[in-house]
Amino acid sequence: MNELVHLTIDQQPVSTSAGNTILKAAQGIGIHIPTICFHDACTANALCRICVVEVHGARTLVPACVAKVSEGMVVDTQTERVRLARKTILEMMASTSDLSQSPEILSMIADYGAETDRFPDAVSRHPAVIDDNSMFIRDYAKCILCWRCVQVCATDAQYAFAINFKERGYKTQIATFFDKPLLETSCVFCGQCIGVCPTNALKPKKEWLLEQGMEPESIMSLTRQERRKRAR
Amino acid sequence: MIDTSQSKVVSTTCPFCGVGCNLELHIQDDFIFKVTSPFDSIVNHGNLCVKGRFGTDFVYNNKRITTPLIRKTPQKPGARTQAFDLNEWRTANWDEALDLVADRLVNIYQLEGGDALAVYCCAKATNEDNYLLQKLYRTLFRTNNVDHCTRLCHAGSVVGLQKAIGSAAMSNTAAEVMDTDVFIITGSNTAETHPIIALQMKAAVEKRGAKIIVVDPRRVEMVNYATLWLPEKPGTDVAVFSGIAHVIIKEGLYDQQFIEARTEFFEEFKQSMEKFTPEYVESVSGVDRKLIIDAARLFGNAEKGAIYWALGISQSTHGTDNALSLINLALLTGNLGRYGTGLNPLRGQNNVQGASDSGAMPWHYPGYQEVDDENVAKKFEEAWNIEPGGLNRNLGLTTTEILSHVHPGGVRSLYIMGENPMMSEPNLNQAHKHMQQLEFIVAQDLFINESGAYADVFLPAVSFAEKEGTFTNTDRRVQIVRQAIPPRGNSRADWQIICDLAKRIEQRLARQTTAFWDYTHPSEVLEEMGSLVPSYKGVKYERIQKVGLQTPVPDENHPGTPFLYKESFPLGRAKFFGLNYYPIDEQPDSEFPLILNTGRVLEHWHGGTLTRNSWLDDLYPEAIVEINPLDAGWQEIRSSDAIKVTSRRGEVVLRAIVTEKTIPGVIFISFHFAEAAANLLTNDAMDPEAKIPEFKACAVKIEKVSLEELPSPDRYQPRGRY
After folding, report:
1. In this complex, which of A158, A185, A216 lies closest to B31 when CB atoms are compared?
2. Per DSSP, what are the bridge partners of residue B698?
3. How far apart are CA B329 and CA B239, in angstroms?
4. Residue A157 contacts B, CB cutoff 8 Å
5. Banded pLDDT at A232 (limits 50, 70, 90)
6. Residue ranges of chain B with pLDDT lower than 50?
7. Is A41 close to B46, i.e. CB distance below 8 A?
8. Predicted structure pTM score
9. In Å, how far is B321's CA from the nearest CA of chain A?
10. Closest Cα of chain A to B490: distance in Å?
11. Residue B673 has what DSSP assignment?
């Protein structure tokens, strides 16, 4: 089981257990590969591709979060091709989604010199904030479809299966089945989705109300009816 | 976006259930706006349920009492009333309130003796709070009338486990769930009451191919993940589990080696199991005999089998026998003292294990040391500076007995820390009458709940977020509770209130020596407790800052004990017990044809003092009765109709849900809702040994009434998951 595999990452020799990913092997020797959709508590799906690296002999760039190490593998994590791919990914993300509350992605944008206005013809998405319960709001204008919320709602944590993708392509959005209000779905309001959301698209209602400028005192004075009235 | 440079994060332990999830409170201007959990947490791996994630806002509820209150009209025994309206109270300063409490308690003590006083400690409060409150009543008033809600929850399991093994805690760790092969889950709606342990069970099934056997009259959510569901009639647990044991014995699936090496009385037990043939069990429990045989083969062949149970087993007039039937099964198959196995009574409250360990019990000092044992009493007299022979050697009254002993010459005064007996006692109409007969009541709580409303003096305590201390979770892990915000208003930490009061009482009693009440921090209280309780000796604040320690921790270098009984049992050899099946106390008849089952729902907590004062109430705003379509059909009852449920002791009106989640002949009501309190209906018949009432089964009838009769007709909230 614990067979060791030898490879090279950024000219450094690494020995790691067979079955590890390139991302884990790199972390083990202190090489940082950026990630967005990857989360330690979720199954990696290589959706965002920000973690791509160059593997010698491979035709395409390889997502480090899912690609397994193999004997003699030679990996470069910061080549020009890699950096350009990452920069473009960030630019495309910025063209459709509101990243203003995604500090980690914003710092990547700075690191990679991404030009957030590179695609002036792109249409950004502005779905309305969904405020259908007293626990949390869903602001999908900030969503980058990283899929983590869907995974923790399903077999990565909670087995609640309340949300999934709807539509396809540009129109893709995380939604409940038939867009039902959360209370009418199988949602258990565990808030696990909030815990893994990288862009603050999902937020406890109290935090959201604070941001709207309400004082804690007035938030806690809202009556049951006032909390409900906000339902769409 | 919240400016993170202006906010802080405080890690602490969840105040709701016994799982003991690690929380991170995100705070700005002393307001908790968000709760997360560290993904590297050993207990919950970053997962939370709705209560931990969103339910801590009761801290800020405007109805919270943050200054001491005294009743304007003096209350007389027999004419005592409930005061929910603040106009019936006047505010007081701490000196005035505590002096009044000390005067009255000392007065009753001097006139009527120590046993006229009684105290309810609190499984929500910290180990330190509970240790101090039992110490106050034992050292100053010389009474053992000290109990808490564990009596209403796991008393049957505790007595059963003490008899058979000698220790009552959960034997293994919840984290071992991932490596168990076959689970028996019984009397536990794990997915709603211990959601985070349920997640691990679901993962064990989905990812490791583990098998679950659910034995329960309700089709609880875990049935969705189960290989077998044995839908038993309420109260037939002894028959079902003895039936399983019968088949295991007949088919030779028992662990001969384990039985010979570590148990006794097997032959007697084997004989008493003869009568539990699958045919007989089917006839009393309604469970198909084939299911009994399948369950026996599945569990009997398991490499690592674990039994998880909760109050469906213990809240019964034969709760002790129910627990023994499970213990027999674990001993028979050798599923004890090994990783991934065990007898695991899931504890309800965040600190019910700790409150019991801290001595909030009428028969035991801290660490389960018996009050009627002369050597134990001497040890505590020495530790607490009491003259020889000073401590009371008689067993105290249990929770339910305290109320039933309220009469002249019996119990005259009650101190309630954080509990709500007027919601959690059975047969509430009777309990109210007892409460009204008391001479003096003190409530120490956050809100004026149904019990505090009877009090003469209300002492405003702080919530978990405003004090320091430790909670001990269901798998015996002592974890730290950190102060995150300053006390609201004029409220004070429970341990400080108790120490301040104790000093005032000691002064009035003019005792020669002091039991010592000058603590500067709860860590000093835990230190003192550790010096008296061997299993807590090695638990020190500096050792549990990041990760909690699992008791027993016999010394300062001991790493804690993930699972118990590896080498031996506290009794040496574990004992098998022969059993007989007895039916429930109140059988259904032609007038009351249905059985009422009670329990909890995911969104609410017990008597509702916390969650009904939280926004959680928006998710589940009114009481609901679950009725099987077969029982609903002939009365043309549909979901969302108003139903009146009547028993011999009371009636409630609430909303119906017609669902197959409950079996025919049995209806289910959760006990969180004061306006339709399930415990108005329940039976106060008790288990003779454990003194636990039969909450889970009583005879009732149902009748459709008009929607206007509902306590809050406008609160209907359709939910997808119910």
Report:
1. A216
2. B596
3. 12
4. yes
5. very low
6. none
7. yes
8. 0.95
9. 35
10. 17
11. -
